[in-house]
């Protein structure tokens, strides 16, 4: 890792977009359909709003503590001990989060492509290659992401175009037929996805034009929200809300449903390969953040030295976390939102509130000498 | 790390990633069933299945051009999965279900309910949800043994269901997804196309059997409850608003001689307008149909007044057909194949939430008003009929 790494605003947009939609495309449509039926796409948009709020908070804090990441300024805001506590929570959370993402992807690869390969082998391959990418650093990763997104976009649009004739927009109505509660309820889990945008707080020091950070991140999050919301609507338009909620991977199943003139069919690989590469970027990014914040927390000079130890922890955890696919999908549907939001959303809000109180207090004390 | 070590590591990783030979099988060791037939043996309560597999050797060589390109395998078991495993033993080959195009259920099976079998099929990652479902009353063995009348690349006529339904009004292509989505809720009930063996009169003994699509089987959730004949099928297709090219003939019995007009539907668009009066739901169907004239054998001149007359005739004809269909669906079959439930749900979600459970009892009682508007689109390459021209001169 070069110590002076720089990414531009445009690269940030693409990075934010990738790390939100990568796993989301496959898992979110089924989760929101279970809670909110045909209104799932509204839930996704609501989740996106939560992501935008997180971005506003972390960019505000990041601009006040210029050149520092969340781990460093949490100590400045909360004092040494509480600040360190927050840092530790975040490190554990990021290691856990990365492990969950790795498991999501390895389980999907095993379930759809390499059915007879053991999970361990798939995980080890991902580990070796992503550890190498993380060693190369953030700049390399963002550049690779730009290349990857072009392919992903072509794939998404191809799939969309081929599915047009199977979509029935009528299935999306009645909008809010069961009231607003199911929609709010369904928004919790996707909000967990969008609030992963809190990661921007750690990479802010690397962005070459700090003023652009806020705008670019918001563009990235909202773009991802619209895309994901569209995916959620798409599968409901193809399968109807009932069938969508029981399919393991509705988006993939929709792609498998493509049949144009008995000729263009079984095109799922067009969708799966870009999906895997996007997720690979996502794993690398969160793995990178986990390594970065650990090195900042432990005050390790060379970030590189932590790549392998943290990696071993992450990938071993990914194998041990879930017993089977039911376990994983139950976790994502019922636990994920409630578990991740207090950390992704709660910590920035807490920091912001204390920061504002301190500022007010500070001003008052200035006024009264 | 020096360069050579890096290269070695990359090669090592590539060995794992790039080779997919573990499960590799020679193509001629794999059998690809294209049609799966499922039958229910009531006496022994066992499932019997038949599949049609294309045999590669016949396709590759030109040795036996008239020989069969397929063979029929049979298997049985307590459940569908057991039966599918049983077929493997008979085939003595690796069976891949990836090329499965259609699944045929017998009426016995369909009357028992097919949701268990659909669970097995949709769970299997080799079978795609876009496979077609078909229903038959004939023996599966004979049915799957039929070969295409006209030589095609397809192993059997059955797999052409998608293609045929584009041209014929006697059938409707229904995929596994359509069926499951419809049977999971009570907003609409599913239908499946019926296929039958067509036996020619005075046919020679060794004459090949031919297939015939005739009408639809009507389901209630996953159970077969009745059949629609060809006329009723056309009516259902009109109401579903599908672009279709099915034609029908109208007899014109006017004072100045008998006439005959054959018209072909170009497009039909149906608007479902549900309403609730005194807490009783009702449905207004407005069908606007565009049609072409395919034959016009009368002595009348085609002018505006005549077109109006024909429009009326076509509208009355469609209206009669659709009303007969709705009457049958409501009172004879008690199956909401037109999806009235869904339309009411979309317009009155609150009413639906309260009465969802009682919909099967409410459905036969609702008032349905049918309004048809027919419009002539094109008379083809001729304007007036030959007969008219003959009389005129």
Describe this structure in words.
The complex is a heterodimer of chains A (369) and B (393). Chain A has 369 residues and is mainly α. Chain A has a single domain (9-350), classed as Amino acid/polyamine transporter I. Helices cover 78% and strands 1% of the residues of chain A. Chain A has a two-stranded antiparallel ribbon. The model of chain A has no long low-confidence stretch (mean pLDDT 87). Chain B folds into two domains: 26-228, no CATH class; 230-393, 2-Layer Sandwich (GMP Synthetase, Chain A, domain 3). In chain B, 35% of the residues lie in helices and 31% in strands. Chain B is built from 14 helices and 14 strands. The longest helix of chain B is centred in the C-terminal third of the chain and has 30 residues, at 304-333. Chain B starts with a helix and ends with a helix. Chains A and B meet through helix 5, helix 9 and helix 10 of A and helix 1, helix 8 and helix 11 of B.
Provide keyphrases for this structure.
heterodimer, A: 369 residues, mainly alpha, Amino acid/polyamine transporter I, 13 helices, B: 393 residues, alpha/beta, GMP Synthetase, Chain A, domain 3, 2 domains, eight-stranded mixed beta sheet, four-stranded mixed beta sheet, 31% strand
